[in-house]
Design brief:
about 300 residues, 8-stranded mixed sheet, 7-stranded mixed sheet, 15 strands, binds zinc ion
Length: about 300
């Protein structure tokens, strides 16, 4: 082959591969169909410069939004934009209480004042860590309790149900590294497991709904090795791509590099991966990320953007 042809092929083959892996399963910008759909309300991290809302995901079943996972900054606007009805939610799940996973909860709850909802709403999340991080009940109390920052909204926690519904905080113990069932009924089964996110109490979540399973890694570095069994044969593993492969120090203490995402998906034999929590340190490095992942496990990998909807 001529040198110019070789150069052209060297350039074009990786590009075609990225195109294939990122478009293997197309994502629409609106979830309005039947069956199970995953919508990304926030695909970014804590920095506003990534120009994305922070972490938040919505699971739809037959056109109704049933489970909200994390409520990071900016995501409440996208919740409204998605067309979801707050009254349809069966549960809110928190991976942990860093700002980029929880800051828009007050905005969303205030907004629900204008929605008719007549059943209580469970809010599941991790246990606390001394003075450093509240548990899920304390987190709600610190916002909406009678001494909370938004105490004018305390009716959302009050026994009198003066708003038509109450938020019911439910704590899952992160010291227990076994799978923990949060909710199980005819429609839905929700399971959590503790994951290592530095010193933060943190959970990964699995939701089985409509015959499909979706697993959310949350922020984690992989050290507890608890995610592969939770993600076993999941239809989608939504993994956080917060750091590049060469991350060291604090970054690596808090987050898993792409090779760990690859190793987990290989152990769990997941069907597809969606990568989110994209930050300036990983944006633009998608090819490097894919290369590190595929050393362990090939198969579809998609990079999430705000409002995208993935049908299962
Ligand atoms: Zn985060």
């Amino acid at each position: 082959m001529q040198k110019t042809t070789v150069r052209f092929l060297t350039l074009i083959i990786p590009l075609l591969w990225v195109f294939h892996t990122t478009t293997a399963h197309s994502a629409a910008s609106r979830c309005s169909g039947q069956g199970v759909q995953l919508q990304v309300l926030g695909s970014g991290g804590p920095e506003v410069e990534d120009q994305r809302a922070s972490s938040s995901y919505l699971l739809w079943l037959d056109g109704k939004a049933r489970v909200l996972i994390d409520v990071g900054g900016g995501s409440s606007d996208n919740f409204g934009r998605s067309g979801a009805n707050f009254a349809d939610l069966d549960a809110i799940l928190f991976s942990h209480f860093h700002v980029d996973h929880s800051a828009d909860l007050p905005a969303l709850i205030k907004s629900s004042f204008f929605v008719e909802r007549n059943r209580d709403l469970p809010v599941f999340g991790p246990s606390g860590s001394g003075y450093f991080m509240p548990d899920t009940e304390d987190f709600l109390e610190s916002l909406f309790g009678i001494e909370g920052a938004f105490r004018y909204l305390s009716a959302f926690l009050d026994e009198g149900r003066s708003n038509g519904y109450r938020l019911l905080g439910k704590v899952l113990d992160v010291n227990n590294h076994k799978h923990q069932t949060a909710l199980k009924n005819k429609r839905i089964s929700i399971t959590a497991v503790a994951v290592h996110h530095g010193t933060l109490p943190a959970l990964a979540w699995r939701v089985d709904i409509g015959g499909k399973s979706i697993v959310f890694s949350g922020d984690m570095n992989g050290d507890f090795e608890t995610l592969p069994s939770l993600a076993k044969e999941a239809d989608i593993l939504l993994a956080h791509n917060a750091v590049p492969e060469n991350a060291r120090g604090v970054e690596r203490f808090l987050h898993m590099p792409p090779s760990v995402i690859g190793a987990i998906s290989q152990k769990a034999a997941v069907k597809k991966r969606v990568l989110s929590h994209r930050m300036r340190r990983t944006l633009g490095k998608e090819q490097e990320t894919l290369n590190a992942i595929k050393k362990f496990y090939t198969g579809p990998v998609m990079f999430a953007n705000d409002m995208e909807c993935f049908s299962l």
